[in-house]
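Retro notes (design track)

What went well: tokenization of the new backbones is finally stable.
What didn't: we kept losing track of which sequence belonged to which structure.
Fix going forward: every design gets posted as structure first, then sequence, in one message. First example under the new rule, 125 residues:
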């Protein structure tokens, strides 16, 4: 019997969602952390698996809009080599970007967010 306000989720979480949540900035950086951008949590966003995919790919594939937004906007978007653009432009071993994967899985809003941010940064930065 459960007590308290917390309810357990009986639905199993797909492994890909686990990867996205496990390496997202919100889960790699403790609340209230003052760790600067460019440190270990940021490096986790660029970690590639055997398919050449980063956590951004898995969040995009599963339609986790808030996770995708948090990941890309946790990175610098200005300067000579903006980390945000670097992450968005990564291609997996099949030549797909996270935006392509989002679109293939019916998550057009995520694909638009990623491509829009990429275009904005290429044009204005």
């Amino acid at each position: 019997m459960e007590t308290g306000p917390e309810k357990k989720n009986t639905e199993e979480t797909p492994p890909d969602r686990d990867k996205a949540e496990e390496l997202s900035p919100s889960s790699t950086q403790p609340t209230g952390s003052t760790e600067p951008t460019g440190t270990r949590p940021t490096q986790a966003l660029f970690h590639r698996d055997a398919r050449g995919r980063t956590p951004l790919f898995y969040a995009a594939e599963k339609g986790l809009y808030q996770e995708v937004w948090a990941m890309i906007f946790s990175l610098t978007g200005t300067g000579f080599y903006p980390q945000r653009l670097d992450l968005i432009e990564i291609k997996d071993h099949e030549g797909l970007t996270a935006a392509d994967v989002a679109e293939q899985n019916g998550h057009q809003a995520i694909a638009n967010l990623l491509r829009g941010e990429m275009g904005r940064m290429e044009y204005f930065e």
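Added context from the reviewer: Helices lie at 15-23, 25-28, 40-45, 55-62, 65-73, 83-89, 98-104, 108-124.
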